């Protein structure tokens, strides 16, 4: 704008000034807000769930509109109607609401993902192979790798007492991160979950917002602690069906002599379900239009699997920094039937980028017998028994499931009764 003013081009200068001021003022405020969210990695329950909706971006844009009018009038009278039309158009192009794909929310996510990606690049540049001995608690003399547990929820963490018992005594080997729908008032779970909520956005079932929420959790965990080497995504309906020691020993194989060895050993895989021959796969692929996913995602590379996974750190960063496939999967589905993008994005991406580094199976057990409206079987208190836990652990291979879902909140009491003697006795 200054360049055009100096060259005495009133039409160009007033127009560019009008647009640049109203847009850049909003963008800079949004980016500064993103930076604040990145540096304040953890929020308390009250500040996260009850955060007021800022009206400052709207004020700055309206102020920019006013400046647009002024510049138009002082530059050339005939530009006033044009500036008026442009200004009102900007208010519609950049609506300041809380929609699932809001402009400022996307900017905050981009800043967060960029920070997570830079952290890994800096670690590699320092020769650390992406792994550091400095945890979020400070420098540790004999650091142990950690599992980041990522809770994705839109309701109370009803099984918090069971998880509390699961985590007890292992404080140096795990971290917890919770993404809770900010439009839902949750009962504070307390204990190990206190202060572990991350800045969140509203999620919708069978929509790209669930992909964004999972990526948000991964990014926060990557930034928060370099010792987070595995990232387990679970829901509020998931329960552990093995002890923490069993899970930790399985993932790290009791053989890590140094943290740097983790990034170089091919035996450490991500545990994510990747399927290519499921029914209705093409219907879901073409749900956005027969050619909408092309050329980035040809049907031959389109995959499906459980949205609940356990990723290595390298794969977590791969997911966070990815842009190309995300632009396809965030497109809305056109038909009446949901296309469940959260069940396709992660399996497709990792299958395309590193199929050999993935197990192709999930460690979360789910019962699809008698499913309804896309929901799996919901276990009731009457169904909880030692036999059920033993059955849920079993797989068709040599591995054993770590988690199981879905359990009704009322199942907590019978689960707690068998926790020590059954669930955590491997």
From TrEMBL:
<dbReference type="InterPro" id="IPR044174">
    <property type="entry name" value="BC10-like"/>
</dbReference>
<feature type="transmembrane region" description="Helical">
    <location>
        <begin position="56"/>
        <end position="72"/>
    </location>
</feature>
<dbReference type="GO" id="GO:0016020">
    <property type="term" value="C:membrane"/>
</dbReference>
<dbReference type="GO" id="GO:0016757">
    <property type="term" value="F:glycosyltransferase activity"/>
</dbReference>
<protein>
    <recommendedName>
        <fullName>Core-2/I-branching beta-1,6-N-acetylglucosaminyltransferase family protein</fullName>
    </recommendedName>
</protein>
<dbReference type="Pfam" id="PF02485">
    <property type="entry name" value="Branch"/>
</dbReference>
<keyword id="KW-0812">Transmembrane</keyword>
<keyword id="KW-0328">Glycosyltransferase</keyword>
<keyword id="KW-0808">Transferase</keyword>
<feature type="transmembrane region" description="Helical">
    <location>
        <begin position="15"/>
        <end position="35"/>
    </location>
</feature>
<keyword id="KW-0325">Glycoprotein</keyword>
<keyword id="KW-1133">Transmembrane helix</keyword>
<dbReference type="InterPro" id="IPR003406">
    <property type="entry name" value="Glyco_trans_14"/>
</dbReference>
<keyword id="KW-0472">Membrane</keyword>
């Amino acid at each position: 704008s200054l360049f055009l003013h100096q060259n005495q081009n009133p039409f160009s200068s007033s127009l560019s000034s009008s647009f640049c001021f109203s847009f850049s003022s909003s963008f800079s405020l949004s980016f500064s807000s993103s930076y604040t969210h990145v540096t304040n990695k953890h929020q308390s329950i009250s500040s996260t769930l009850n955060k007021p909706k800022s009206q400052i971006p709207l004020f700055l844009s309206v102020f920019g509109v006013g400046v647009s009018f002024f510049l138009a009038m002082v530059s050339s009278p005939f530009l006033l109607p044009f500036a008026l039309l442009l200004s009102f158009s900007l208010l519609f192009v950049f609506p300041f609401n809380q929609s699932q794909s809001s402009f400022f929310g996307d900017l905050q996510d981009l800043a967060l993902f960029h920070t997570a990606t830079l952290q890994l690049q800096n670690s590699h540049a320092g020769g650390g192979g992406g792994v550091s001995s400095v945890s979020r608690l400070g420098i540790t003399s004999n650091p142990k790798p950690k599992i980041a547990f990522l809770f994705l929820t839109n309701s109370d963490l009803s099984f918090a007492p069971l998880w509390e018992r699961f985590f007890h005594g292992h404080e140096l080997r795990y971290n917890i991160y919770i993404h809770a729908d900010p439009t839902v008032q949750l009962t504070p779970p307390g204990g190990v979950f206190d202060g572990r909520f991350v800045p969140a956005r509203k999620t919708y079932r069978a929509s790209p917002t669930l992909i964004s929420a999972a990526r948000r959790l991964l990014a926060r965990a990557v930034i928060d602690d370099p010792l987070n080497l595995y990232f387990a995504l679970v829901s509020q309906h998931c329960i552990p069906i093995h002890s923490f020691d069993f899970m930790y020993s399985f993932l790290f194989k009791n053989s890590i002599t140094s943290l740097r060895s983790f990034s170089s050993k091919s035996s450490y895989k991500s545990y994510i379900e990747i399927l290519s021959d499921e029914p209705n796969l093409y219907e879901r692929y073409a749900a956005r239009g027969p050619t909408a996913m092309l050329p980035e995602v040809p049907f031959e590379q389109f995959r499906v699997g459980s949205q609940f996974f356990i990723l290595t750190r390298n794969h977590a960063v791969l997911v966070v920094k990815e842009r190309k496939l995300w632009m396809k999967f965030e497109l809305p589905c056109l038909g009446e039937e949901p296309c469940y993008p959260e069940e396709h994005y992660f399996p497709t991406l990792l299958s395309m980028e590193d199929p050999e580094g993935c197990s192709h199976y999930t460690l979360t057990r789910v019962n699809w017998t008698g499913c309804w409206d896309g929901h799996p079987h919901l276990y009731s208190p009457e169904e909880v028994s030692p036999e059920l836990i033993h059955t849920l652990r079993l797989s068709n291979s040599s591995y054993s499931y770590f988690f199981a879902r879905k359990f009704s909140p009322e199942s907590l009491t019978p689960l707690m009764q068998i926790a020590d003697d059954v669930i955590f006795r491997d």
